[in-house]
Amino acid sequence: MNGQTPPxxxxxxxxxxxxxxxxxxxxxxxxxxxxxPVVPLAVxxxxxxxxxxxxxxxxxxxxxxxxxxxxLLVLSGVFGHVAWQGxxxxxxxxARDLGEEAEILSVGVLPLYxxxxxxxxxxxxxxADAKDRPIASIVLEVASDNEPARRLYATLGFTQVxxxxxxxxxETGIADGLILRRGIDRGITGEISLR
Length: 195
Prior knowledge:
Blueprint: E1 21-25, H1 41-58, H2 66-73, E2 78-85, E3 88-97, E4 101-109, H3 118-130, E5 137-143, H4 147-155, E6 159-170, E7 173-183
Parallel strand pairs: 4-5
Antiparallel strand pairs: 1-2, 2-3, 3-4, 5-7, 6-7
Helix pairs in contact: 1-2
């Protein structure tokens, strides 16, 4: 299949191992290579279960279930990517094109692959997607207690533009949500540069 990782059946276990990192578009078939603009609910359900399994591994304090992903995947403008390490998923990102702005809805890296550039690769892929769309900025939200993610976003040009008090649930309490934004600079040649 064009050298890409074959799709896994819905609900399949997501084993983890080493290998070269690649980022591929999320599709209507679980974890394959076709972009996901908008799909019917029945088809979105195919990607919902694997995404919910990954989300639970990334965010055990507040995981999204398959039904939440089914609702997201049918929204207009939703697109996403899965990062692969060898034949195994290492992380995912879901975003929504809102016209002049894109919102990163969720980005997660499985614990085994953290601090290896997976999150950076996923975000840079969404930034690169923006050059093909009339997007002027990207916005996301991060928990105030997620220092590694906040440092990563800062190195990618995101700055705080808002705060949602007591937004994230934790076993040990709650954390504020920080709203971050970065502009898309296409430069003279149309290339995107991080700023």
